[in-house]
Amino acid sequence: MKLKIVIKFIIVNATFLLSFAAQAKSLEQAVAKALEIHPDVRALFYQYKSMEQDIEIAKSGYYPTADLYANAGIGERDNVQSRLGSEDEEFEPVSYGISIEQILFDGFFTQENVKRTKAEAKAEFFTLISSAENTALDVVKAYSSYLSAEKILELAERNLASHKEIYGQIEERKPTVDLVRNQICHKLEDD
């Protein structure tokens, strides 16, 4: 008895899997399209890309900085010569230049900052993967439900056709059944 149930179970599952395999290409397309257009997956993808940029920003602590500066203005001198009148008290200072700095040791701040941002990016990546897998699972469930509903509809249509055929056969035999019934009734009345 159990063997028959197991065999039926295997046959039903094999039939389902074969029909599922026949539709695999369109299932792949459905999953790919859903992952492409799902707003949560897209948002997490761009958030992950942003975290990758943050890693590059954190690495910028390793590089030297170059600053360009320029000053201009009006000033007054207050020294002995300016008080004696031998030097003009007002002047217009102009200064400009470039400064290049390289931090030699920042207490491992840059190194730890890079590690931290890499860990955050990795966590964001796994969040993206999780969301994508959940979305794909939802699509597969919906696709599977659709295939099941399609099979049920097909079976219902075949069942309806079978019932119509049987009903037609009954309608064809009805005059014969009525004739036999009438004959039986007459025979019973005669007796």
TrEMBL record:
GO molecular function: efflux transmembrane transporter activity; porin activity
GO terms under cellular component: cell outer membrane; efflux pump complex
Keyword terms: Cell outer membrane, Membrane, Signal, Transmembrane, Transmembrane beta strand, Transport
Subcellular location: Cell outer membrane
Keyword Signal listed: yes
Coiled-coil blocks: none
Classification via Pfam families: OEP (PF02321)
Signal peptide residue numbers: 1-24
Family label: Belongs to the outer membrane factor (OMF) (TC 1.B.17) family.
Record protein name field: TolC family protein
Organism, as annotated: Psychrosphaera haliotis
